[in-house]
Write a structure and sequence with these properties.
The chain is α/β, with parallel strands linked by helices. The chain has 14 helices and 8 strands. Helix 2 links the parallel strand 1 and strand 2. The chain is globular and about 60 Å long. The two termini are about 40 Å apart.
């Protein structure tokens, strides 16, 4: 059942991960204002818009120009919808959002359409330019970064963001290869990583996972500043939400989920008391966690493999922070 009390089917075509759970978490009110900070292809946004009345508002953000083009094509004519190209980390600078939100929805990580388009450079299984930028008009491409970073910096990124145990070996191989020829294509990088990785035993989990999986993930997270944006975006969401508003976040990586979990706990639970201090610090919770971590059920994971790693968390804003 959705927040409106009516069972709603997920839209056909692109499969939004944990669609019903997301709408349930937002508790959409017909007159409310909701922000989807990761529009993608609009699967979750369509569900929110279906629940809004004529006085409701839906704010759409994405830093990917392809996503914004879809938003303008499919939603731009609806007077209830406003569209902004940019990272959700900057939602506080958008007047429409800073005026107050009843819900914020974030679906983190790379989207399926981005992976499917070889020219975006996200996928090791499709040869394309080694780019990986969610906003191709901003920042440094993966190829440019790999051409200039030293082996220590590359190894640190692979380990920190991908937990790649062979990070140093891969980094040394990248630096050695670029002295012979520049790494400009995703296939080049994927083949290089596969060539230097130790082989897993046939039938093992290691043999079924492409050797470049963790490295591509790590480079993408680093290039797009995904964790820094997430931390800034959560702070911005808390500031923009009205009391009673809901924050709903879907993450696909343990580092992302840890940031979301710790953010909610930090604003929901008093810090441990210090016996050495004579007076305890007064604590006013700003958030309440709504349930715990949610996972996709078997019915969803069986038809949408991407949902297997998804974790959904919901929090409700309880109070405004005290002015400093």
């Amino acid at each position: 059942m959705t927040a409106g009390g009516v069972e709603r089917a997920a839209p056909s075509g692109h499969l939004p991960v944990m669609y019903r759970q997301s709408l349930d978490g937002l508790q959409v009110s017909g007159k409310g204002t909701y922000l989807d900070g990761t529009f993608g292809r609009g699967g979750h946004a369509r569900g929110v818009l279906d629940l809004l009345g004529p006085d409701g508002r839906l704010l759409l953000m994405d830093k990917d120009p392809d996503a914004i083009a879809v938003a303008e094509r499919d939603f731009g004519a609806d007077p209830r919808v406003s569209i902004f190209r940019g990272s959700f980390a900057a939602m506080g600078s958008w007047e429409a959002a800073s005026a107050g939100l009843d819900g914020v929805f974030l679906d983190l990580g790379v989207s399926s359409p981005q992976l499917d388009v070889a020219e975006r450079g996200f996928s090791f299984s499709k040869d394309g330019p080694l780019d990986m930028r969610m906003d191709p008009d901003s920042g440094q491409s993966a190829a440019d970064w790999l051409a200039s970073a030293d082996d220590q910096e590359i190894a640190d990124v692979l380990w920190t963001y991908g937990e790649e145990r062979q990070s140093r070996r891969i980094a040394r191989a990248i630096v050695a290869r670029r002295e012979e020829q520049p790494l400009l294509r995703t296939a080049q990088l994927a083949e290089l990583i596969a060539a230097v990785m130790p082989r897993g035993k046939p039938g093992s989990d290691k043999s079924r996972i492409h050797p470049a999986t963790r490295s591509f993930q790590a480079i993408r997270i680093f290039i797009n500043r995904e964790l820094a944006d997430l931390e800034a975006g959560l702070d911005a969401a808390l500031a923009c939400l009205k009391v009673g508003g809901r924050l709903v976040v879907i993450s696909f990586h343990s580092l992302e989920d840890r940031i979301v979990k710790q953010f909610i706990n930090r604003h929901a639970k008093a810090p441990p008391s210090n016996r050495r201090l004579p007076v305890g610090i007064e604590f006013t919770p700003l958030l309440a966690a709504i349930g715990g971590a949610q996972k996709a059920d078997y019915a969803e994971t069986s038809v949408n493999p991407r949902s297997r790693s998804a974790v959904l968390r919901v929090a409700e804003k309880l109070a405004e922070p005290e002015a400093a």
